[in-house]
Amino acid sequence: MSQIRVEVIYALPDRHWSIKLDLPENSQVGAAIQVAKAQWPDVPFDEHRLAIFSRPVNLESVLKNGDRLEILRPLIADPKQARRERAADRKK
């Protein structure tokens, strides 16, 4: 069976993790996450915060050769609330 190469990444403001994986063709995101979990036990994984090239995916999504699987961090602030606060500061 053919192999594909994908990259799994997780980034913080001051640090990042990256691993390139060779997986069987038609592998799902869940398989890549399992391998990454073994390598990075301290990285928080949330199956609802995954993307391939910034497009949301789930654990059953099929990976393609060259995909970059991103483990997304939770938002620090609600973007709508932050925008409201900035607008209120400008009015002062």
Question: What can you tell me about this protein's structure?
Answer:
The protein is α+β, with helices and mostly antiparallel strands. It has one domain: Ubiquitin-like (UB roll) (Roll), CATH 3.10.20. It contains 2 helices and 5 strands. The protein has helices spanning 29-39, 79-91; strands spanning 3-12, 15-24, 50-52, 55-56, 68-71. A 5-stranded mixed beta sheet has the order 2-1-5-3-4, covered by helices on one side. Strand 1 (3-12) and strand 2 form a beta hairpin. It is elongated, with a radius of gyration of 17 Å. The mean pLDDT is 91.
State the low-pLDDT regions, or none: none
Helix content: 25-40%
Order of helices and strands: EEHEEEH
Any idea what the radius of gyration is? 17 Å
CATH architecture: Roll
**Sheet with most strands: strand arrangement:** 2-1-5-3-4
Total domain units: 1
Overall pLDDT metric = 91
Overall structural class, as computed from helix and strand content, comes to alpha+beta
**Total of DSSP H or I helical runs spanning 4+ residues:** 2
Identify the overall geometry: elongated
CATH class: Alpha Beta
CATH superfamily: Beta-grasp domain
Describe the sheet with the most strands: 5 strands, mixed
Cα-to-Cα separation, first versus last residue: 65 Å
Number of strands: 5
CATH topology: Ubiquitin-like (UB roll)
Into which percentage range does the β-strand content fall? 25-35%
